[in-house]
Amino acid sequence: MVLPPLAIRRTLIAVTVFLLATSILWWSLWSIAAGRYRGVIDGWIESGRAAGYQIDYTDRKLFGFPRHVILRFTNLHWRNADGIDFHTGDIDIGATPWEWQEFNAKFKNYAEINTPLDQDGHSLILAGNEGSAHVTLNEDGYWKLSRMSLSGAKVGRAPDYLFLAEKLKFSAEKPDELPKSHKDTGLTLTGQADNVALPASMPSPFGFGMKNLTMDLRVMGDVPDFRKKSSVETWNKDSGVVEFDNLHMDWGSLILTAKGTMGFDDELQPEGAFSSAIGNQEQVLKALMDNGFIAARQEEMLNSALSLFAKPSKNDDFEGVEVPIAVQLGGLFLGPVKVYSFPEIVWPEAIPVSPAPVSPPAAAPP
After folding, report:
1. Residue ranges covered by each domain of the chain
2. 21 alpha carbon, distance to own chain's centre
3. How much is the pTM?
4. pLDDT tens digits, 155-174
5. Residue 201 gets which letter from DSSP?
6. Which is nearest to 71 in space by CA: 29, 36, 23?
7. Residue 40: closest CA among 135, 169, 178
């Protein structure tokens, strides 16, 4: 049946009115949610400043209609009372309306987290040209899950960074319940770095470029502050360790997949044991010898050790041999042979950090 022109006109008007009313209603609801969201962020800023944090920015904008609520901060600088400093050129912090436990962020124009390590001005830096992050909060408003990805990443102490990476992804997740003993997981960490560049101060027989580094690990027991000797000592005495569920390296001629346990000895120096599968084992041994990491006179002993301790392994990605790896006495041991020495960890004394100056309240744009 063909509707008469008048009926068609009325139908079009009704649909238009319905869509307009729905849009106005959703805009009103979004505006309410946006106001609540801005109130949540302002509450965090105010409570942080009251606790001695320095929080500054030059501008901010609210947008994201219709599906999200996003606050864009320009030249954001955040520094807590422990001296941990974060700054970025631009960052968008967003959420879905009324879901205030899930937050997403995108940042660009460089972002850096600077964590002080000692009284001499050394600090641990995590930085990138641009990236994204996701945070899930628990019912009490504390973070439960955090994920971050960075491009052009820098990790370590400037200017001689531990490594640079074209891409870096990592996550941290807390358990639902606090660990009751060293047998319970206190923190789960995952990380993946692609196209890694190592500094010239860390000579390696496998070169200064690593195609991939992947780690999945769990910190057992109450998680210590690894910057502080006293905190690590307490954790170590309570049998705290780090369980590596997966460690994978694609590094020059070395292809390695391992799992094991790392901790500290009584002198707070690293020690651990891993079971591993190594690919290209003949090329790995040649690289170690050619670069002076294994003396030529040890070749026969190491080959004998590999024959004795290693057995064939067929990994999903490569064929190789299974070899026990130990970290102890300041070195890395492949079976019974020490193939690498690393410097002793010199733990800094307690860091006396003065509270950050309380910033005057920034004018909140409407």
Report:
1. 56-341
2. 45
3. 0.80
4. 887 666 778 899 999 999 99
5. T
6. 36
7. 135
